[in-house]
Amino acid sequence: MDRETTCCFTGHRPNKLPWKEDESDPGCLKLKEEIRKAVEDAYDRGYRHFICGMAQGCDFYFCEAAQALRDSRPGVTVEAAVPCEEQADRWSEKDRERYFRLVGLCDYETMVQRHYDRSCMLRRNRYMVDRSSLLIAAFDGTLGGTMYTVTYAMKKGLEIRALEVNGFQFEDKTAG
């Protein structure tokens, strides 16, 4: 895939979201709509390949938005960037079913490494950023994998489309 037409995503898992797993919450519905708009805007700007890290929470929202875009617009591909085989092993049955359904609906699946270790999620995040020129970020400023991915994307010169989460909005940036 061409880096210039590739977009990736980072965002929080349910434990960092005020609605936790209640996706009917107005805040969650608002964020899902913002993600949908950001994905459509990326498409309108020429992005055609969308990479998702397949974590619970915001990654699922992004993957669903990218797959819906693919179903309604020509030329879109969606890639599941899976950090390791065991990613979903300890999740609830409901989340595992959603995960495997979403991965199965992707056009590509890239497993970054076979077995879990404490760095596999960071490797997955670097994989996505290194192959993209745009990062859509649902980020509330807290420490963790999402902040790491945003910081890494800034160092790599990606354009960052920031979405508000938990009332926090960092400034959209093009690093470099």
Overview of this protein structure:
With 176 residues, the chain is α/β, with parallel strands linked by helices. It has one domain (3-174): Rossmann fold (3-Layer(aba) Sandwich). The protein contains five helices and seven strands; from the N terminus they run E-H-E-H-E-H-E-H-E-H-E-E. The chain starts with 5 loop residues before the first strand and ends with a strand. The mean pLDDT is 93.
Rounded mean pLDDT is 93
- The level of helicity is 25-40%
Strand content: 15-25%
**What gap, in angstroms, lies between the N and C termini?**
22 Å
Helix/strand/pairing category: alpha/beta
CATH architecture: 3-Layer(aba) Sandwich
CATH overall fold name: Rossmann fold
Poorly predicted residue ranges? none
Overall morphology: globular
- Strand arrangement in the largest pleated sheet: 4-3-2-1-5-6-7
Biggest beta sheet attributes: 7 strands, mixed
- Integer tally of domains: 1
In angstroms, what is the radius of gyration? Answer: 15 Å
Number of helices: 5
Helix and strand run: EHEHEHEHEHEE
Oligomeric state of the chains present here: single chain
| CATH top level class name | Alpha Beta
Q: How many DSSP-defined strands? A: 7
What does this entry show, briefly?
With 176 residues, the chain is α/β, with parallel strands linked by helices. 39% of the residues lie in helices and 18% in strands.
What labels describe this entry?
about 180 residues, 7 strands, alpha/beta, seven-stranded mixed β-sheet, Rossmann fold, about 20% strand, 5 helices
